[in-house]
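Ticket #249: bound-state structure for flavin-adenine dinucleotide.
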Amino acid sequence: MIREGFRNFRLASARWLNDSTLWLTFDSDIEAEPGQFVMAWLPGVGEKPFSIAGMAPFSLMVVDVGPFSHALHQLQPGDKVWIKGPLGHGFQVEGDNLLLVGGGYGSAPLLALAHDARTKSAKVTACLGARTAEGLLLGKDFADLGCQVEFMTEDGSAGRQGLITLAVEEILATGEVDLLAACGPTGMLSALAGLARQYHVPSQLSWEAQMRCGMGLCGSCEVPQSLDPALPPGWLACFDGPVFNKDKD
Ligand SMILES: Cc1cc2nc3c(=O)[nH]c(=O)nc-3n(C[C@H](O)[C@H](O)[C@H](O)COP(=O)(O)OP(=O)(O)OC[C@H]3O[C@@H](n4cnc5c(N)ncnc54)[C@H](O)[C@@H]3O)c2cc1C
Ligand code: FES
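RESOLUTION: The complex was predicted; output attached.
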């Protein structure tokens, strides 16, 4: 069965990043902005959005948490996945000194942004946060791009102990950051939106929401203004975002 707007990619290889996360590399490239996403479809299983983790070759970073992600984890080299995209609006490199903040699989789209920024010789600090050391993803990949990497874990098992916002606030307080870009859980993004306002720093935050159509038709991915008062009413993660680009206040 072929669905309109979808094309197939074949799995080339899979690499474990931790007990529950695979980096899946496919057999072709995709042209996209960092932060854009795709709808991935497996016939008989369903369809879900995923950030584009790599473009050349096309790659996804998938955490095994439920039926769809589990099915992606079962793919073998040569197996097909159907992809629609790239979709939505991504991150843009702005300024010479970027602070990237990733929680969980949010570090995947930020790695592509770090790559673009380093190509333009921008200074990049990547703050990666998780509950435990096991949840910290892609630290070496950011370091290999020449980024300064700061780790925070809630239990102190890697890097400094505490919430990622602690490290972010210290860095914003230096007054040297031109852009705060982040992807991760909505609670983390809400806190970062507040810090960006407080320190008058432009921000690009990638918001997540339940998606069905992925193209602005069904309204299921509206992001509530309560998460960030700067978000316009009726703002749709799939169509207006997922990245919300906010000039400094
Ligand atoms: C724009 C966008 C980009 C996304 N990018 C990625 C990505 O790069 N990688 C990725 O793995 N997922 C990504 N997701 C989430 C993905 O679309 C699915 O929601 C996820 O794979 C779970 O689907 P499922 O059917 O396996 O489990 P579901 O049955 O949908 O979820 C099972 C349970 O796990 C919870 N859950 C969902 N995701 C996570 C998670 N990451 N960690 C812990 N608990 C979770 C759900 O709330 C639910 O309670 C993205 C979502 C959006 C909207
Ligand atoms: S998922 Fe349908 S409007 Fe965004």
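RESOLUTION NOTES: The helical segments are 67-73, 107-119, 139-144, 164-173, 186-198.
TICKET STATUS: resolved
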